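Exercise 7. Predict the joint structure of the components listed below.
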Amino acid sequence: MESYPQDSNSLARENSQLKARIAELEAQLAQRHSEESKKTTTEQEPLPFVPVPRLSNHDIARYSRHLLLPEIGVQGQLKLRNAAVLVVGAGGLGSPCILYLAAMGIGKLGVVDHDVVEISNLQRQIIHTEARGLSQVTKADSARQTVAAINSQCAIRAYTCLLDSDNALNILADYDVVVDATDNVPTRYLINDACVLLNKPLVSASAIRLEGQLTVYHYHNSPCYRCLFPTPPPPETVTNCSEGGVLGVVPGVLGTLQALETIKVITGQKALEPPTLLLFSAFGSPLFRSVKLRTKKDSCAVCGTNPTITQLQDYPQFCGSQPVDTPLSVNVLPVDQRITCQAYQALCTQGSSPHLLLDVRDKVQYDICRLPNAVNIPWQHLRRDLDQLTRLTATEQPIYVVCRLGNDSQLAVQWLHDQGFTQAKDIIGGLRQWATDVDSDFPVY
Amino acid sequence: MASLALTLEFGGGMELLFGNVKTHKVTLPAHLANDRPTNIKALIGWIRDNLLQGKPELFISDGTVRPGILVLINDTDWELEGELDYELKDRDTIVFISTLHGG
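Solution:
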C-alpha cells in the first residue's frame, strides 16, 4: 500500500471531499430506490378476474387437499375461486390473513394500506421483507409482490391510499367480503358503516400486547360494530401497538383466524353459527374464550330499522382521533417549564447545575435505554406515591423530566408544579428527540 | 346476611387499572342498604370504591362503564341479560373487557 506524507490540512480536505462523495452516492441510491418503488406501484395492473363455471385441472391438482374435505369439496373451492375479498390493513393481522387467502385460492384479493414497510414492523408483519423495509415500499404493494410469488393465479390489487369517507364505498363495492385488519378507531367505524351501507359481511379482528379479539359483523343476524359500540371510546383510553407493544404471533393467530372466518362466510358454513366474540389471551389459560353476543340491534344508528346514518360520516371527528397508529401528542406546558434536548445537554456539560433527572417511563422501557444519572419513577407510580420523589429531592430544587416521546413528561411536570415542585421542567420531545438532536448513537424504539 | 361470591375478570388492558391483576375473587352482600338485590349497577360502584386503582374516568362514565368496555355475564354479552339491572347470583363470573383496536 502506498503511503502519502500528508499534513492535517490536506487530510481534512480529503475527508470533506470523501464525505461529499458519499452524500452524492447516497442521494443517487435514494433516488433509485424511490423510482423503483414508484415503478412497482404503477406496474400493478392486476390479472383480470373472471368467474369460472368449473375448476381447471391445474386447480384440482393445486387444491386437492381442500377437495378431499367434505366441508369444502369441489363446490366450496369453486366458491373460493370465484370470490373477491378486500383486506384493509397489511400489517400484523393482514399479513397472515392475505397469505392464507391467496394460498387457499381466493380468486380476487384487494389490499388497502398507505403505510410504508418499516423495520420495526417485521417482527409480526410476515408478508413483508427487509429489502422492502429499507427501500420504503408501501405495505399494499409489498403484499401484492408476495402474493404474486405465492399464487400467480390470484388477481390481486394493491390500493396504496388511506381508506376514507370519499373512497371507501367505491373500493368496497368490488368485493364480496371485507376483512378489517386495521389499527385505529376511526377506520373501524368507517369500514363498519361502509359494510352496512353496501350490505357486505365484515370479518374484524384486533390485537395488542398479548391479547386479541375476533368477530364477524353484519352477517345474517349478527350485530354490526355500532350495535355493540354505539359510542367511540375516549381517545385517551386507546392504546396502540407502537405504544403498548405486541407479541409477533398474537396478530398472527388472529389474522389467521380472520382468513378462516372469511372462507366460512364464502362457503356458507358461518351462517349456521350464532354471533360470538372470540377472545384470545396468549399467556392466559385457557388461550381462547368464546362469548355469546347479542343479535342485530333494532335501534342501531346504521343497521337498525330506522337508521340515522345513511351515508359515510366524518370519522376522525366522530372518534376525536386521527386514522393513524401513533400516540396522541400533548402540549400542555408554558414555554418556561420546558427545555430543549440541546439546552439540557449544555447544562449537563457545564456541570454547574445540580439537578435531578427524572425518567417517568415504565420500567420495561427504562431497561431498553436510559440517560446516565436518570432516576426512574414511572408516571403511574409517581402519581400514587409522591414520597418516592420527596426522598430524592426538595420542592425548590430543579427537576428535569424525560420520557420516550415527550408526552408523559409534560403531564408529569404539570402535576409536579401542582404539588409545589416549581422548578420542574420537561425535556422537549423526550429520548426520541435526544437521539435526533444530541446523540445519534442513542437507541430508538 | 346472605352474600354473593363473585369472580371478576378484567381484560384487554383493563387489568392495568386494577394493579395488573386480571382475576379478582370478591364477596358482596346479596342486598344493598335499601334492601334491593345487588345488581350490576351496584357492582360497578362497588368496584370503583373498593378495587379500582387507576383513574375512575377510565372505567366509569355517567353511572355505567365508559364506552369501549364490554361487560360479560357468565360469558354472555350483558345486553342479553338486562345490563345494569341484572341481579347478581352467587358464583357469577363478570368480565369487563376493553375493546382492542391495534392490528
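Discussion. Residues 335-437 of chain A form a domain with the Oxidized Rhodanese; domain 1 fold (CATH 3.40.250.10).
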